[in-house]
Batch of 2 targets.
Target 1
Amino acid sequence: MTAAHPSPVPRADELGRAFALGIGLNAAFVGLEIFFGLQADSLALLADAGHNLSDVLGLVVAWGGFLVARRLPSESNTYGWQRGSILAALANAVLLLMAVGGLAWGAIDRLVTPAPIAGATVIWVAGAGVVINTLTALLFLRGRSEDLNIRGAFLHMAADALVSLGVMLAGVLYLWQGWLWIDPVISLVIGAVILGGTWSLLRQSLHLSLDGVPETVRLAEVAKYLAGLPGVTGIHDLHVWSLGTSETAMTVHLNIAPDLAGEELLRTISEELRRRFGVGHVTVQLETGMGACPSGLGEHVPVIANGESA
């Protein structure tokens, strides 16, 4: 038996406009940074432009994943294309890591052969970047907690705002002290900060792409809840995975007493799993009989029968 409750991604039109506006603003800013970065001979400014370019590509990928995930199920794709949003989040993380690698390579080269920069130009261009990237990040602020793909877009823009702030600092310190090394050093520090923030996105998106249990769900707690339901004598083949970055699915076999009202039990399970664990697509197979089979629960999840750990 199945009790399924798919939920559409909220604020689709609003998020679509956010992606379009963010891509337009950042694409224009990339051109601005490249032009003035060459004029000022600033590695930090050019590195920021390269990172901004990866952000534009990241936003395009995230928008594509968002649109693909909204495609309706078909005979050939019965879940739709929701997995596309997970792959988009993974691609976003990879793009960020590539940008950090390029930034670090250029910074190390500049440390070996220091060069002067036009500090004033660096400051005002980077300042514009702080404003643009902060505004773009705010466009995705509301959706970041409920969708990993949107979170990837938010992290991209928040990281770039941080990069631009660091570039501003490099320009100020250069004008104040004349330190030639400050430009590449700031670039390396920024890269390390971005790397730290990107690692979580990479780990989560890779985990979900391999049908891992979402971090918001504790499998043992789900098993305990199901086993504790009145009339349930055992559970087996419990699986939880992500259909996309905003939809979690679960399948389970429940052993129940022969006289138990199955429809009422399914309704209760569906409502409670959504409320307690955020699982929106629930498939339950009811079986009469006693006991529980360990198959499918995994070695780290307790096998539960008659409401107790076995």
Note: Residues 1-10, 291-310 have pLDDT under 50 and may be disordered.
Target 2
Amino acid sequence: MTVQPPRLRRILLVEDDPVHSRVVAKWLSAAGYAVTAVESFALAAAALKSRWDAIVCDCDLPDGNGLEIARIAKLAYPRLPFILVTAGRQAERVVQAVRYGIDDMMLKMAPLRREHLLARLAELIDATDEPYETVLAIGAHPDDVEIGCGGALLQHVQNGHRVVILTLSQGAAGGDVAQRVLEAQAAAKKLGAELILGDLPDTQVAENGSTIDLIQKAVAAFAPTRVYTHSVNDLHQDHRNAARASLSATRGVPRVACYQAPSATVDFRPTMFVDIQQQLEQKLALLNEYQSQCVKAPYLAPEQIRANARYWSKYTASEGAEPFEVVRACA
């Protein structure tokens, strides 16, 4: 079994006092963390577009409040460890900290102790950490993966997982190949995924032979711990054959699930539903890269994508979900 190396933990430090910022950054760096320090509310808000393993944030900033940073961060990433450093434990701040899900409040002038901060930070990261995953998402054509599991893939990227997209054909039957390739590359870049573009004939993707060989090569190269692929319950022959080839080529992968395509039949019977409420707008942005298809494919219309996500959300506590047929779910 391949053992993945430990991932470098990224800490966002928000502190406007340059002396205090240098001291705390030095503590964190010496403990093995990758530290990015910013000194204002505006810079911290912009930094939230990136993925962090924890945030250490001063409450009083020259252009805003650390509590608002916590609210924004926890809304996007509820399990993200957040430590608020404050000059005093005013009752109103404590109430807001609890409301926003802040994990700990530490007094700056207590003084803040190195051992206490590092121990608490390690405890919070360990409690919320997930096993390192490499995810392989297989689609017959450009845009299949983003339609079927784009929200789930965005979650994987945000959790620090490696995401690889394998597109079996370049979609020649659906438009200009050069344009479709550029669109697939742009969407993968926006997602934060690696892209493998196969050259199997569009509308003639087989369920064996070259298709299995292409998928097996990707499995051998990336050793995925999870695979998303098409469902056999689909009207499109490429989708059905990609599904059958995937199930054969990924026999050794512990977790395999099939996503829904617009051409899925009523026999598509999902048993797993991924909450993508927080990723829905990002998913729409991915699909927007496929302009050559958007103009002629009604299933790519934002209102259609939202409606489908809302429909499946009835099985979750959210307002948007992606459905999956679970093939294998080993622990």
Note: The domain at 134-329 is CATH 3.40.50.10320 (Rossmann fold).
